[in-house]
Amino acid sequence: MPDRLRLHAAHLDELRVRLGRVRLLVQRFEKDQAAFGALCGWVLTGLGERHLRHDELIAYVEETFVITVAGLRDVADGRQSLARFVGEPDDGPRSATEIVDGVLATVASREWVEPLLAGSAPVAEFAVPLDDTEAALRAAGLAVAMARIPPLRRMVDDLAGMPDVVAEQARLWADMAGDLRAIGGDLQRRLDDDLRGADGADVRAYLTLMGNNVEALRGLVATCTAMTVITKAAGDLILLARDIVRGLIGDLVARVSGWVADPAVVPLPVLVSRLGTVVATTWRIDAYLTALVTSIANLSRTIDG
């Protein structure tokens, strides 16, 4: 039995090292939400807090491995009994899987997305498909607006964020889910194989104790999976809103440029109609931005809760 305990302790120490590598992934996350743009980043408070909480939970499991390895080696060397080391294990952490499943269902349902954006195209450079000539005019209009109207440029910049960083964060959550799933599976196999055939109340108590760690790792996997989906959903919606707003700006500037270039005298009703177009476009942009902020706030509550 002592040799089996030493071998089992060595296996646990290997898993501890792997957990340490997973913590290095957490430390690669952005310290703030600038990646999601100035308009929405402040709403996603739960993302930054979740990074820290996740690191704390992994560190806790890692520390239990350190304590367990040291305790098993003491037992193997006869310095204490396994029963005394294990003590009275509690019932373990409550499974997070059901809670996270609920979060995933909420995100997938898109009920958090405001109706104005929910009915929009999944990803489009502009709101409505156009022929090549109209598309070129829109693109030119957008370029003029960004170059000559600083408030519009700042508004688009606030929406832009850093899509590549958002994608990287989603990938890191997915990578952590994979790594933690593998560690949890290997821990369960070590418990099944290393102590196979060993019996007694002390062994059963130890298996129950370490089973809590298996469950904790499964909970961390579920959390990582949920955060992958949430991060991607937030980034995709912000990009969609940005593309729609850019399209509306480009379309409006292209129209105004055409009006200015027209030498004909414009009747008053036409001028009123054109003014109405400008006002309507401004209202639509504001409506899309409001819908985006409200949607991201709804999504953030799935993290904070």
Please give a structural write-up.
The chain is built from 11 helices and no strands. The two termini are 46 Å apart. It has helices at residues 2-26, 38-41, 45-76, 82-86, 97-109, 115-118, 132-148, 150-160, 163-194, 201-261, 268-304. The model is unreliable at 122-127 (pLDDT under 50). It has 305 residues and is mostly helical. α3 (45-76) packs antiparallel against α10, α7 crosses α10 (201-261) and α10 packs antiparallel against α11. The chain has one domain. The chain is rod-shaped, with a radius of gyration of 28 Å.
Topology readout:
Elements: H1 2-26, H2 38-41, H3 45-76, H4 82-86, H5 97-109, H6 115-118, H7 132-148, H8 150-160, H9 163-194, H10 201-261, H11 268-304
